[in-house]
Amino acid sequence: MKQALRTRRPLKPDYGIDKPKALARLFLAGMAALAAGYLLPSYETPAVTAPLLGPTLLALGCLSLGACALMLAWSLKGKFVVRDRMLNLVRWRGNETVLDLGTGRGLLAIGAAGRLKTGIVVGIDAWESARASATIEDAQRNLDLAGVADRVELRNDDPRDIGFVDKSFDVVLSLSFLHTLDTEAARAAVCREIARVLRPRGLVAIADVGHGAEYAKALEAAGLKVDKPRTLYPLVFTALELVVARKTA
């Protein structure tokens, strides 16, 4: 018993499976289509034939299960690949003040905190909203498990009205968050807030499902120098667009 306790592996942060309900629905639909496609020939009669229905159902089942596999690959590997690409855009000194918009379970905030020595990360999310897939307690638990709780501050706040004064952050990051806002006006408001709280020579990196050109336009209108949006193809269900911008003055 003592030996088992000594060799027990330490707990690691749990970043969860993205969109678990959609994943479950796809899996069940895929299995149902495969079963129907396999069993259909047994029920054909001379009066009722559907020679293409069985193969079609089998193909749809395979497509659904393939989509499940890609979604799982994103949750287990792809989002870590994207996170590291975003963090590698920054020339870290270790004393930066970082803002993470849409913190969720803390994947990006924890990664950024690992690059800091005396700096701090502020993680903002609307954890109390009906759409939230995690709670602030989930994020705090992951911070504790990762050993970076002393370098990360969590705030349950509206990203359209960031509660910080102008020029508060050296780096602003956001991963798969802004598209959850319903309207272009709401997303543009967040981009304006990002530009407002960014310090001169600061960097913004947004990786999101679509809307890359929209974010680039809004950030440029707010006075930032914006690189051409790039499309990322990690292990992911759908391609992400990466928008990088800087404040020159």
Descriptive report:
The protein is an alpha/beta fold and 249 residues long. It has 2 domains: 18-75; 89-246, Vaccinia Virus protein VP39 (Rossmann fold), CATH 3.40.50. Helix content is 41%, strand content 18%. The longest helix is centred in the first third of the chain and has 35 residues, at 53-87. The protein starts with a helix and ends with a strand.
List keywords for this structure.
7 helices, alpha/beta, 8-stranded mixed beta sheet, 2 domains, 249 residues, Rossmann fold, 18% strand, methyltransferase, S-adenosylmethionine-dependent methyltransferase activity
How is this fold's topology laid out?
Elements: H1 2-7, H2 20-39, H3 53-87, E1 97-101, H4 107-113, E2 120-125, H5 136-146, E3 152-156, E4 169-175, H6 184-197, E5 198-208, H7 212-221, E6 225-226, E7 230-232, E8 240-246
Parallel strand pairs: 1-2, 1-4, 2-3, 4-5
Antiparallel strand pairs: 5-8, 6-8, 7-8
Domain Methyltransferase type: 99-206
Transmembrane segments: 22-40, 52-76
Organism: Rhodomicrobium vannielii (strain ATCC 17100 / DSM 162 / LMG 4299 / NCIMB 10020 / ATH 3.1.1)
